[in-house]
Specification:
Elements (H helix, E strand, L loop, with lengths): L4 E3 L11 H9 L3 E5 L4 E4 L11 E6 L4 E7 L6 E8 L2 H20 L21 H20 L2 E9 L3 H5 L6 H5 L5 H10 L14 E5 L14 E5 H7 L4 H4 L4 H12 L3 H18 L5 E5 H10 L6 H6 L16 E5 L8 E3 L5 E4 L14 E6 L6 E8 L5 E6 L2 E7 L3 E5 L4 E4 L1
Parallel strand pairs: 1-3, 4-7, 6-11, 7-10
Antiparallel strand pairs: 2-3, 4-5, 5-6, 8-9, 11-19, 12-13, 14-15, 14-18, 15-16, 16-17
Helix pairs in contact: 2-3, 3-10, 6-11
C-alpha cells in the first residue's frame, strides 16, 4: 500500500512512512491525523522525524484519467500512486444543456434585441471548459502533493506520440533509430489509429505487423500516412500488390482504409494541446520539469514487465525512470465531482421549477458533500455510519454509506472526517 505522508508542526513535508509506523506514532500520541485523503499525519514533536529524501512527481495525463505517482529516484520506490478521473464529459453535457435552454428562450416571441458583435473574443491560450478543467484538476493536485511530500522535480508525459520523430528518425540522434526504442513511437501510434486490429480482415488479439499500404516496391514511402497494421496471413497474401489490386473485390473496405490513412489521430491531437498547456502550468511551479513521449513510457513499462494501468504509466514517464519498486502499492482513486451547481431552483423534465435551493450552504457547520462519521447511541438507528452527508435545514441529515443511504441522522451525532473539496475518493 502507499506510504503515509508526514508533516512537522510548521507543516513542512517530511519523508513518507510505512502505514504501520504511522499507526504506532498515532497510538503513542506522537502524531495526529492531519488529512484523510490522501492520508497525512502531523507530528506533535518540534524535531524533524527523519532526514528528507527528494521525491519526483510523475504525471501521465489522459483524456479521461490521469495517472499520478511519487517516485524516489535514488531507490526506485513508488511511495504514492493515484488515478484521477476527470469530469470533462459532465462539463460538456452541462454546457450543451445550457445552450439548448438559451436557444429556446431566444426563439420565443420576446422583445427584439439588437445583435451584439465582438463580445466573445477568446483570450490567448484559451481551452474549451471541458479541457481546461483537466488542466485545473492536475494543477490542484500538484499543489496539494507539494505541501505533503518533499517534491523536488516533476516528470510529465508531454505528447502521446513524438510526431517529429516518426517523420524524421534522425531528429533526436542515432540512439532512437538504432537503439532499443526504435519503432515504439510509430507502432503505438498505429495501434491507436487502426483500433488494434488488422486493417484488411479486422481480426483482433493476434500479433500485428506494420505494413505499407502502397508497397515500397512500387514507390510507396515510409511516411506514417502510408503505414497500417496487418495480421501475418493478410500481410503474406498481399505481398507487393497495390492495395487497389488486393482489395478490388471489396471496394467498401478499400475506401475505408484509404480514408482512414489520411485522417490524423484527432484524440491524440486534442490531448497534446492540453498537455502543452499543462506543461506551462507545471513550469510555473518553479521545479525542474522533465518531459517524455508515450512511446518512451511504454518502452520503460515493457522493459520492467509491468502491467498497463494509469498510475504505472505515470511511474514510467521520462528517461529518469529507475528500476521501480511497486511492492504493495494500491492507488488512491480520485474522482473530480465539482462543487455543485449555482442553479437557483431545481426543475422537472419539462423545465418547470420543482423545488427551490437554499441560499446558504452550511447547516450546523456541515455542508453537503462532507465525509462524516456518525455514532448513534440510541433510537432506532443505533450504530456507526461513515459516508458523505446531505444536509437539511432541520438538522436531520442523510448519510450515503457503502451499505446504502441512511436517513434522519441528527447533526449532534456527526463529526467531520474530510471536508468537501470537489473530489471523491476510493481505494
Amino acid at each position: 500500500m502507499s506510504k503515509v505522508f508526514v508533516i512537522d508542526l510548521e507543516k513542512r513535508p517530511l519523508d513518507p512512512v510505512h502505514p504501520a509506523q504511522a499507526r504506532q506514532l498515532l497510538r503513542n500520541k506522537k502524531a495526529a491525523v492531519f488529512r484523510r485523503f490522501p492520508f497525512t499525519i502531523i507530528l506533535k514533536d518540534s524535531q524533524a522525524y527523519a532526514p528528507v529524501q527528494p521525491i519526483r512527481l510523475k504525471i501521465d495525463p489522459g483524456a479521461k484519467h490521469t495517472g499520478i505517482a511519487l517516485v524516489n529516484d535514488s531507490t526506485g520506490e513508488v511511495v504514492f500512486a493515484a488515478e484521477l478521473k476527470h469530469r470533462g464529459f459532465a462539463i460538456r453535457d452541462a454546457l450543451t444543456s445550457r445552450r439548448q435552454l438559451r436557444r429556446t428562450r431566444r426563439n420565443r416571441k420576446t422583445r427584439y434585441r439588437k445583435p451584439r458583435f465582438l463580445n466573445r473574443t477568446r483570450s490567448k491560450g484559451w481551452l474549451a471548459p471541458s479541457l481546461q478543467s483537466r488542466v485545473e484538476n492536475i494543477k490542484t493536485w500538484v499543489k496539494r502533493l507539494r505541501k505533503l511530500a518533499p517534491i523536488t522535480a516533476i516528470s510529465q508525459e508531454l505528447v502521446r506520440f513524438d510526431m517529429h520523430l516518426m517523420r524524421n528518425p534522425n531528429i533526436q540522434g542515432k540512439e532512437y533509430q538504432q537503439g532499443t526504442l526504435a519503432g515504439y513511437e510509430t507502432r503505438e501510434y498505429l495501434l491507436e489509429k487502426w483500433g488494434r486490429q488488422c486493417a484488411y480482415c479486422g481480426v483482433k488479439d493476434v500479433p500485428l505487423q506494420i505494413e505499407h499500404i502502397h508497397p515500397r516496391a512500387k514507390g510507396g514511402s515510409n511516411s506514417i500516412t502510408n503505414l497500417t497494421l496487418s495480421c501475418s496471413k493478410c500481410n503474406t497474401k498481399k505481398g507487393s500488390k497495390d492495395i487497389k489490386e488486393f482489395l478490388k473485390k471489396d471496394q467498401t473496405r478499400l475506401e475505408k482504409i484509404l480514408k482512414q490513412a489520411k485522417r490524423p489521430l484527432a484524440d491524440a491531437a486534442a490531448v497534446n494541446t492540453t498537455r502543452f498547456a499543462l506543461l506551462e502550468v507545471l513550469k510555473s511551479a518553479g521545479l525542474p520539469v522533465e518531459t517524455g513521449s508515450g512511446g518512451l513510457t511504454k518502452f520503460n513499462r515493457s522493459q520492467q514487465n509491468l502491467e498497463k494501468s494509469h498510475w504505472l504509466d505515470a511511474a514510467c514517464v521520462g528517461k529518469s525512470t529507475p528500476i521501480l519498486n511497486i511492492k504493495e502499492i494500491k492507488p488512491l482513486l480520485i474522482t473530480a465531482n465539482g462543487h455543485g451547481s449555482r442553479q437557483s431552483c431545481r426543475t422537472d423534465k419539462f423545465g418547470f421549477p420543482s423545488r427551490y435551493v437554499p441560499r446558504f450552504k452550511f447547516v450546523k457547520g456541515f455542508q453537503t458533500g462532507d465525509i462524516v462519521k456518525a455514532v448513534v447511541g440510541k433510537g432506532k438507528k443505533i450504530g456507526e455510519y461513515v459516508g458523505r452527508v446531505a444536509v437539511r435545514t432541520t438538522g436531520s441529515f442523510n448519510i450515503s454509506t457503502n451499505n446504502g443511504l441512511v436517513q434522519g441522522i441528527s447533526y449532534k451525532y456527526c463529526s467531520a472526517i474530510h471536508k468537501k473539496d470537489g473530489y471523491g475518493y476510493a481505494n
